[in-house]
Design brief:
Blueprint: H1 35-39, E1 49-50, H2 61-77, H3 85-96, E2 103-106, H4 109-119, E3 127-131, H5 136-149, E4 152-156, H6 165-172, E5 177-183, H7 195-204, E6 208-212, H8 224-227, E7 231-235, E8 247-251, H9 253-258, E9 269-273, E10 278-281, H10 295-311, H11 313-332, E11 337-339, E12 351-356, H12 361-372, E13 374-375, E14 377-379, E15 386-390, H13 397-412
Parallel strand pairs: 1-13, 3-4, 3-5, 5-6, 6-7
Antiparallel strand pairs: 2-8, 7-8, 9-10, 11-12, 12-15, 14-15
Helix pairs in contact: 2-10, 3-10, 4-5, 11-13
Length: about 425
């Protein structure tokens, strides 16, 4: 018997080769489950407390089972089943309120950002505005263009209260500005930025808008048609709880007709003939999904979207906010604590970033995992040198209180 229970057959064997059935029915209804029941849908260890979904979101069992089921099936059939991509694309389109033909399924946010940066045909001297709070995956493609082609990067310092950010961005625009690339929710402090207003500003000034939604999708409601950016980018492995190596890029319709794809291969073309040296590109975003892909992972991404949709994104956002408020209140009276996340609920969500001002917060992050089984993330970006705690649907009040107690102990040692 082979892996996953699929029988091996030697030459000449008369044993019937049948596809094994899944061990259990993974099609479940989650919307009526309590938070404790939802927690049981994840395989996190009982003595491990994960407050780092903003980096890596563990997948619920239903996502894992769907991936394994697809892997077993495709191995049995000897096919990649590329057509299964379209079902996931439809699920993503409904979830984000985006047209299917504008959606490319990528490997992560960084790949999406590279596709955008390298497809815009920017020239030396063109200016791209970024905030100092961008993640390396969102910033590196633009920095590479600056190094290789001479585009200009203008960095803006965001207002951590959340109140003045649209003014800050507007005041940073010059006649050379071609792109504004900004996070929907910052990875540093969990601040929600007014992305719809930023996009509207860009349209008035004839500037390309690119929104990094890696920290937003799956945590708060996102309506891409309402925001209406030129590009909206996200990943599947954080708040969506999807497989690692999955992402989404929503593209502008005009861009698709005017610009070339960054990557090309099978499935990029509307016409291909090597004999006549002919290749013509599709005018839909899926042209970026070149070649053979990991279709089981894409199916897993679709299942993750189903999981979030069934639970309800509004309910998820409310739960994360409740836990983050509980945590913020719990650490507010600890001596030496500085909180970077906005107090205004309009600009805050399920992330809280803070630091113990007199301590080595990098060492504290290491001690929390080794001594307490608590995982948070050290924030080095923009020289914050603090700690970020993420509050997801598998966290509960008892775990939040445990984290508060651990931070209090770290502050007084």
């Amino acid at each position: 018997m082979g892996i996953f229970g699929i029988p091996y057959l030697s030459n000449g064997s008369t044993k019937k080769n049948t596809l094994p059935k899944p061990k259990k029915n993974t099609d479940q209804n989650f919307k009526n489950l309590s938070w404790s029941e939802i927690k049981n849908e994840f395989s996190l260890g009982k003595n491990f407390f994960h407050f780092n979904t903003a980096s890596i979101g563990p997948s619920p069992n239903i996502v894992l089972e769907k991936i394994f089921e697809a892997m077993r099936l495709f191995a049995y059939l000897g096919t990649s089943k590329h057509n299964r991509v379209e079902l996931t694309r439809t699920k993503i389109g409904k979830f984000l309120n985006a047209d299917n033909e504008l959606i490319a399924i990528t490997r992560n946010s960084t790949e999406g950002m590279n596709i955008v940066a390298n497809s815009l045909c920017l020239k030396k001297g063109d200016e791209v505005i970024l905030s100092k709070d961008e993640h390396i995956g969102g910033a590196a493609p633009w920095l590479a263009l600056s190094k290789e082609m001479g585009i200009k990067i203008k960095l803006v310092e965001l207002d951590y209260s959340g109140n003045k950010n649209i003014e800050i961005i507007e005041n940073s625009i010059s006649r050379k500005t071609k792109v504004v690339c900004i996070s929907h929710v910052t990875c540093t402090t969990g601040m929600i930025l007014p992305v719809k207003a930023i996009v509207e500003l860009c349209k008035r000034r004839n500037i390309i808008s690119c929104i990094d939604g890696a920290q937003a999708v799956g945590m708060i409601p996102v309506d891409v048609k309402s925001i209406n950016p030129d590009f909206y980018i996200t990943c599947g492995h954080k708040w969506l709880f999807g497989p690692k190596g999955s992402g989404v890029l929503v593209m502008n319709r005009a861009f698709l007709t005017k610009n070339r794809p960054h990557f090309v291969g099978a499935y990029s073309d509307s016409k291909f003939d090597l004999g006549t040296k002919t290749i013509e590109y599709l005018n839909i975003a899926s042209r970026e999904e070149y070649g053979t892909r990991n279709i089981p992972h894409i199916i897993g991404l679709g299942t993750a979207v189903d999981f979030i949709s069934d639970l309800g994104i509004e309910r998820i956002a409310k739960r994360g906010r409740e836990l983050s408020i509980r945590f913020t209140k719990g650490i507010s009276n600890i001596s030496g604590i500085e909180i970077f996340t906005p107090k205004n609920q309009e600009y805050s969500c399920s992330l809280v970033t803070f630091k113990i001002k007199t301590k080595d917060n990098l060492q504290i992050s290491r001690d929390l995992i080794t001594k307490n089984g608590i995982r948070v993330r050290f924030i080095y970006e923009n020289d914050i040198r603090g700690l970020r705690a993420s509050f997801a649907i598998f966290n509960n009040e008892e775990e939040v209180d445990l984290l508060i107690a651990a931070i209090k102990d770290a502050a007084i040692i």
